[in-house]
Design goal:
88 residues; mainly alpha; DUF3613 domain-containing protein; signal
C-alpha cells in the first residue's frame, strides 16, 4: 500500500521535473501575455508629460464639489427605496 502511494506521488513529480509546465492550474498559458487595452492606455498616460493646465475649469470643479458636499448634508428620505420601484 505504501509503495503504491509513493509511486502515485513520485511519477507525476518525475514527469514534471524535466521541464516546468507551460500552463497554470486553470489550463491558461502562464507565459508572457499581451497587455490589455486598459494597461496600454495607462502606460501611455504614465509616459506622457503632465498637463499644462487642468482639464476642467476651476469654476466647474468648485461647483461640483459644492453640490457633492450639499448632497451629504441632506438626510436620506425614508421612502428612498420606494421611489425607484414601480408597483404593479
Amino acid at each position: 500500500m505504501k509503495a503504491l502511494l509513493t509511486l502515485l506521488i513520485l511519477v507525476p513529480l518525475a514527469a514534471t521535473a524535466e521541464q516546468p509546465p507551460a500552463h497554470g492550474l486553470s489550463g491558461d498559458i502562464a507565459a508572457d501575455r499581451l497587455p490589455t487595452a486598459t494597461e496600454r492606455a495607462l502606460e501611455q498616460q504614465r509616459r506622457s508629460p503632465p498637463a499644462a493646465h487642468s482639464e476642467i475649469s476651476n469654476g466647474v470643479y468648485v461647483d461640483s464639489q459644492r453640490r457633492l458636499s450639499d448632497s451629504f448634508r441632506r438626510p436620506i428620505p425614508d421612502s428612498f427605496g420606494n421611489q425607484t420601484r414601480k408597483e404593479n
